[in-house]
Amino acid sequence: MRRRLSERDIAAIAEGSAILGTGGGGDPYLGSVYAARAVRTFGEPELASVDELPDDTLAVAAVMIGSPVPMMEKLSLGDEVGRAFDGLQSVLGRPINAMMTPEIGGVNTVISIAIAAERGLPVVDADAMGRAFPEVQLVTQTIYGIRVCPLSMADEHGNVVIINAVDNFWAERLARPTVIEFGAISPSLGFPMTKADIELASIRGSVSLARDIGESLLFGDPREGGVLEAVLERTGGIELFRGKVSSVDRHVTGGWAVGDVHVEGSEAFAGATMRVTFQNENLMAYLDDQPIACVPDLITIVEQDSCRAITTERLRFGSRVSVLAMPCDDKWLTPAGLTLAGPRHFGYEVDYLPYAGRRPVPAPGPAPFDATRS
Amino acid sequence: MQIGIDIGGTNTDAVLMAGGNVLATYKSPTTASVGEGVQQAISQVLASAGVSTAAVTRVVLGTTHFTNAVVQRQGLDQVCAIRLGAPASRAFPPFSVWPEDLAAVAHGSSAILKGGVNFDGSTITALDDAELRAAADAAAYAGLTAVALTSIFAPLSRDNEQTARDIMAAAQPSLSFTLSSDIGNLGVLERENATILNACLTRMAVDVVASIETALATLGIGCPFFFSQNDGTLMSAEFAARFPVRTFASGPTNSIRGAGFLAGVQDALVVDIGGTTTDVGALRRGYPRESANTTELAGLRTNFRMPDLVSIGIGGGSHVSVGDTHVTVGPRSVGRLLTQQALVFGGSTLTATDIAVAAGLLDVGDPGAVAHLPRAQVEQALATITRDVERAVDAMRVSSDDLPVILVGGGAPLVGLDAFHGQPVIRPEHGQVANAVGAAVAHAGGESDRIYNLDKMSREEAVSLAEDEAREQCVRAGAETGQVEIVEMDALPLTYLPGQSVRIRVKAAGPPAA
């Protein structure tokens, strides 16, 4: 069913995205203000399911490439966004007629919706991660050999750089030095996908899932535990653990915020300890030193009373939290998906392990890509 | 002898101290005029201790006057807000994310002009003299006097703001300036918001300082006076007149530090139970632990360094309602009308204070007025209060340490000493004026919070530059030269940024010069 995305929907999507953002994605404040303003100025964009897309669909997505600190200073969501869009359009050969969000989580989700409002384009109810990840190539397109290029990057001066790389690893490699010259932040448009690409490689329904989760969080069941139940029901997840944060260790390594958090169990979990490790996003959960859930499944830490997600930079001693585990999209569990974004990609010497109570893991899909290129 | 005065929204508390001993205390409703309130408080504490004005060596004030002006949108000046960084940052001009009613009173004019630097110190665009002179002329022509200057990445390099100020001041000498590099850290919108707020309050700050000077002169007190800042240190009156935003949140900070001083501990959890709310904060090496989150003030995002607090809606004036199965306490409160509306004072509202009197924890008003309350109900209400306060304390507790809990504020008797799961609990004498004590014992402070690029200097050089700046600030804030110590230093590498960018924060403190 076609419908439009209101300001309320955008607030709900931002809130729901934080649950699916697995502790990463950063502060969505600027993106949310930008999207709300775009909707007020240009009208509500349409949310279109994959099935409703016309056959000549050409959808693109927006990502902020760079670092959150320059973003906080340069507020790079002005004319540069439009120039990146126009730059991409100029090399595509046919009109862009839909926007897609690259990930669910953080600032990129709402920015793609804002551009859709500005350009009068529909938003595809799908994304390319079903969660948040920190690198350009960590998208479902890579599993299926679909390029994220051409990628159009812009700065405040009017410079536009179009990257046309042979694959998604090269795209990440070439985008990095460009973004440094741009002041370490650049709104970038790319990820062109046809309807066939979207049908093959995207994660369907994720925008409305984020909205539904956000609706429950913002306006949902006030009963004790009611909001948590609603979130678990919508995501198919479980409450992995419940307790109080007893320590947080956070440091910066190679440009990433790396660390871990210890949670002392309470109620049914009294006497046990859980450790969750993160690199921007939460990656592994250990119960009394045994790994019990891991990436690419979603591990999110929420406040116990409100069920609001807590990002890794906001984790704090003493908070009463629940640790949730939610199933990732099946595409990530293909051999190619696990090679791309399984625990080993993030430096853990373990294979993917489905958490107890997870819905069944599907049969293997496409063959892995050539992992030596990474 | 020192006098500490805490001017809150409801009450003004004062204390006279000598060598760490409390000689006299004072508590009275806050007056509309700051100068009058100060004069009254000082003459009362001096009279009750029988001490002459000549013995007073220092007066320190904590005040919510400026915070309240912003919250109530009253007495604020219209500001000319100039951001340096065009063509970057144009998506969100100054005032664009402000609550409408606050912008309506504070927005004089705004512009985004050329200037600013990138994360690596490289220029975005060079400052344009003609553009800046025109902006100064336009502001003066519009009758504005307060200018807020915010340059992109000013915490990294403040040259742009200083040069722009010099150019504008030369064109229009009537203008006064607040520079964002004196106010806040990374995050241009949050820093700019705080800078504009400071500019809004500058004229009022000059008036308040003058009214206190008059009050002190009237009393014949010639000693220096100071204001307490949000980090628990104090600043000279001259400094406060330029940076009124630094008084924000000084109330809870003073209460946390005062509690620690009265209890004689450096590390503790402090529970301040007031009339409407209970604030729980953490004292770490004698100073409040700071909040890591963005702080909102009256609907505006800022990045002040505020004490880390958990507030819950329980206080001495909280409404107590009795249901079929359970008793609830707060968040509604009779507030400053406690002495008219509570049962023990002849009113008709059942409050937390009535419960405390019925349980024999507190001796105020008429105990006969609460004699009819069923014992079970009283106990249930007390258990509810204790449980909620315990939860707030747990949320502030770092790991499973054995920090003592200090109970202060007028509502402290509401919580029994047997609470907090057997952790040591201290209820110090004079705890009801802990905030005024915190002001009286404050040291002068200075800080430096900047980003350094370690490709250009060693870490040691950067730390030493930061320490020098903090010491210099501390002396400017009123500390005795030569007695300044570095009390805190941390160096944080910045996420995702290439190269070796490190944010160094140094705090210095020292006793005020006589």
Written account of the structure:
The complex is a heterodimer of chains A (374) and B (514). With 374 residues, chain A is an alpha+beta fold. Chain A folds into two domains: 3-206, CV3147-like fold, CATH 3.40.1610; 237-346, CV3147-like (Beta Barrel). Helices cover 32% and strands 27% of the residues of chain A. Chain A has helices at residues 7-20, 29-42, 68-74, 79-92, 107-119, 140-143, 168-181, 195-201, 206-219, 226-235, 335-341, and strands at residues 3-4, 46-48, 58-66, 98-101, 123-127, 151-154, 160-163, 185-194, 203-204, 238-253, 256-265, 273-279, 281-287, 290-294, 298-303, 320-326. In chain A, strands 1, 2, 3, 4, 5, 6, 7, 8 and 9 form a nine-stranded mixed beta sheet that branches. In chain A, a hairpin with a 5-residue loop joins strand 6 and strand 7 (160-163). Chain B is of the alpha/beta class and 514 residues long. Among the domains of chain B are: 79-200; 264-428, ATPase, nucleotide binding domain (Nucleotidyltransferase, domain 5, 2-Layer Sandwich); 444-510, Dodecin subunit-like (2-Layer Sandwich). In chain B, 32% of the residues lie in helices and 26% in strands. Chain B has a six-stranded mixed beta sheet with strand order 3-2-1-4-9-10, sandwiched between helices. In chain B, strands 11, 12, 13, 16, 19 and 20 form a six-stranded mixed beta sheet that branches. Chain B has a four-stranded parallel beta sheet with strand order 6-5-7-8, sandwiched between helices. The longest helix of chain B has 32 residues, at 188-219.
Short summary:
With 374 residues, chain A is α+β, with helices and mostly antiparallel strands. Helix content of chain A is 32%, strand content 27%.
Which structural traits does this protein have?
heterodimer; A: 374 residues; alpha+beta; CV3147-like fold; CV3147-like; 2 domains; 9-stranded mixed β-sheet; 7-stranded antiparallel β-sheet; 16 strands; 32% helix; B: 514 residues; alpha/beta; Nucleotidyltransferase, domain 5; Dodecin subunit-like; 6-stranded mixed β-sheet; 13 helices; 26% strand; globular
